[in-house]
Amino acid sequence: MKSNLLRKKLAGLQTWDKIVRLDKYPVTDLKSPVARKLIETGREEMARLGGCEMPDFVTPEAIEALQLESTIMESSAFFKPIVGNPYLTPEDPKLPVDHPNRMTEPTRVGVLAYDQYPRDSLLRRIYEWDPLMNFVGEILGLPAIYRYADPMGGLNLSVMQKGDYLRWHFDQTDFVTSLSIQTSDVGGDFEFVPMTRTETDEKYDDVSKILKGDRQKVKIIKNHPGTLVLFRGRWSIHRVTEVTGARSRLMGLFGFDSKPDVKSSAHLYDIRYGRSSVLEEPPTFEDYERASQK
Ligand SMILES: O=C(O)CCC(=O)C(=O)O
Ligand SMILES: [Fe+2]
What we know:
Layout: H1 2-11, H2 16-19, H3 33-49, E1 51-54, H4 60-73, E2 78-79, E3 82-84, E4 105-107, E5 110-112, H5 122-127, H6 130-140, E6 146-147, E7 155-160, E8 166-169, E9 176-182, E10 190-193, H7 204-211, E11 219-221, E12 228-231, E13 237-240, E14 249-254, E15 256-257, H8 266-273, H9 285-293
Antiparallel strand pairs: 1-12, 2-5, 3-4, 5-7, 6-15, 7-14, 8-13, 9-12, 9-14, 10-11, 10-13
Fe (ii) ion binds next to loops.
C-alpha cells in the first residue's frame, strides 16, 4: 500500500529542518543576513522579470513524500477541457476576430482543491506554515499577507498528464506562489513574457504577436522538483507547454493575497473544480487508495 509507505516517510518529517532547506532558505529568521540577502535578490528579480525562482526550497525527502501523496490523490483531480482567450473572460463578439480577446486556445489541466487535501498532507502543512507565507510577503514587499479565505481555492494541485496544455493567459490575481513537485519527462515548461502589459497599457499588438508564435521575448522556467516560484501573472502573459511524456507534471499552487477574506466566485468553482459544495471533511490517503482500487 502506497499510503503505508507515505506514513513512514511523513513520520521522518516531523521538524521543519527536515522539510525545508533552512540552511539555504532560513525563513524562520527573516532578520538573518542570509534571509535579508534572499529577500533583496528576490525583490530585484520580481521588479525586473515579474517572477522569482528559488531552487531546492524543500529537501529531497520532502519531495519524495510530496510526489507520493500527490500520486495517491492524482486520479481524483477534476479535468474540464475548455477553449478560452488569454484574459480568462468570455469573448467579446463586437471586437474584430484578430483582437487578442477573440484569440482562443484549448486548455486541459486537472485540479485538486484545498478541501480534498488530507489533514496530514505535507503540501497542506507547507501551505499552512506561517514562515513561508511571511517570507513570500517580504519578497513581494507587502505590508501584510493572508491565505485565501477559500475552502477550495486556498491550496490547489495542478495535474498535467500526457497531452495536457495550459494556454497563454494573464492571471486574475496579483501573484501566484507555486512549488514544483514533479516534472514531466518532456514538455510541461513554464513560459512567460516579462511585463507584457501594464496597468495603463494592454499592449494588444504585443499580445497578439505572442499568441501568433512570436518567441522573441519568451523566457522559460524548467521548474525542477522542489523549486518555489513567485510570479506576478497579472502583468506577464504565461503558459505551460504541452506535456508529451508519460509522467505527470505536478505543481502545488498556494493562494496568498495582500487582502484578507479573498474568495473564489461560484463561476470559478464550477469551471475549476466542477462542483459548488465544499467537502465537510477531507478524505484520508486511505480513502483515496480505496477509491482508485475500485
Ligand atoms: O502550473 C503552472 O506552472 C502555472 C499555473 C498557472 O499559470 C495558473 O494556474 O494560473
Ligand atoms: Fe496563470
